[in-house]
């Protein structure tokens, strides 16, 4: 695998333990990324079949090389929102790791980084048309404010949207650091880092339609599980975790799922120390009834 696409899987042991791997079971990794969780499944249960899905073509190319030594592994370049069309037979376990990969964060050309200048992109699937530059430069103030408030839970959404429109009157906003400077100038000093992070999160969610995709994929994934099959979801912010919690609760009340994690599992202090990007992770798991 290319060194630039190395990614440390979060809550690896906990996720695999909760999948309760069967000797020759079939498992779906809906967010293949750098392949860390899929590799963990194959190492622990070599006879298991794993179907890895990722919408990021760069991840697919890199991870195919990394995992080429494993048999009974199928890798598919698609969005997990299409899981019902991808998976034709019931499976023993399904995993979602909703975080963006270290490569996506660290590679300036992807447009996710707060620290390195790059184009305002933020597309997971680089073949799609909508990107962050389109939103920032062409959406009206009300739409921008709604994105920042709903997807970033940003208290200064109105002020930031107004500042973006003011800047747009004089020049196009093209790069991540240009946007970062606009956000920082629009808000109080003590909120700068938090607000910039929230605005970038909001734009990423809007570009990739992440929350609607998650809602539909979770519902379809539950339907695709065999009886006693497991679903494990690792989320990284409250909007994702809320959807997972609500979906599991609804399915539990309907008698379709048994919730295995009354409270989400969190990374240990040791894991956070070795992988700081794991800090916000929350893992929830359930079993098909």
Automatic annotation (TrEMBL):
The lineage of its organism: Bacteria, Bacillati, Saganbacteria. It comes from candidate division WOR-1 bacterium DG_54_3. It comes from the Bacteria. HAMAP family: 16SrRNA_methyltr_H. NCBIfam families: 16S rRNA (cytosine(1402)-N(4))-methyltransferase RsmH. It catalyses: cytidine(1402) in 16S rRNA + S-adenosyl-L-methionine = N(4)-methylcytidine(1402) in 16S rRNA + S-adenosyl-L-homocysteine + H(+). S-adenosyl-L-methionine binds at residues 35-37, 54, 80, 97, 104. Pfam families: Methyltransf_5. This is Ribosomal RNA small subunit methyltransferase H.
